Amino acid sequence: MKRRTMGEAPDADWILELRRLAEASAPGPWHVGSADDEAFMSAEFVSTEEADNAWPPERSVVAITQLQLPRYAGNERSEENSRFIAAARMGVPRLCDRLERAFEERAALARGLRELLDVAQKPSGDAQLGEAIERAQRLLKELGAG
At what angle do helices 78-120 and 12-24 cross, to 10 degrees? Predict the structure, then answer.
C-alpha cells in the first residue's frame, strides 16, 4: 500500500487496497481477549473466537498486543490497541462502502452543477434554467441533502 501523507485525500485505489486487505484477512467479527495465569502471566490478544480469561486456539489469534512471558509485546495501551484492531476488522469495509458512496454522490453533484452552469450560461431563456434547477433540486433530494 502506498504511504499516504497527512491531509492527502483518499482515492479509489486506496479504498480498493483497504478492501483487498480486509477481504484477505481472517473473517470477522474479531474479539478482544486476555489471559492471566501462571503459564502466560498476562496476555492481551485479538482472536476470531471469544475466549474468556483463557488462551484461544492458536489458529484463531490474529494479533497479540501484550505478551509478558516471554516478554515480547505490550505497553500501557494494549487493551485499547486490541479493541481498535478488532473494531477495524468490521469497520474498515463499512468505511470503504461509505467512502465509495460519498465519491458517487460527489460525482453526481458535480455533474448536476456542471449542467446547471451550462444552462445558466446560455441565453436560452428561463424555461431551461427552471428545468435545470428542478433537476438539481431532485438530485439534492436523492442525496438526502435537500
Answer: 150
pLDDT digits (tens, 9 = 90+) for 13-58: 889 999 999 999 999 999 998 887 665 567 889 999 887 767 778 8
- Distance, in Å, from the CA atom of 55 to the CA atom of 65, rounded to the nearest integer, reads 13
Strand partners, 45: 33, 64
Please give the model's pTM, rounded to 2 decimal places. Answer: 0.70
Measured on CA atoms in the order 129, 132, 136, 142, is the torsion positive or negative? Answer: positive
- Which cell numbers hold the place of 39? 503459564
Rounded Cα gap, residues 32 and 16, in angstroms: 27
Provide the pLDDT for residue 124: 62
Where exactly are the structural domains of the chain?
12-142
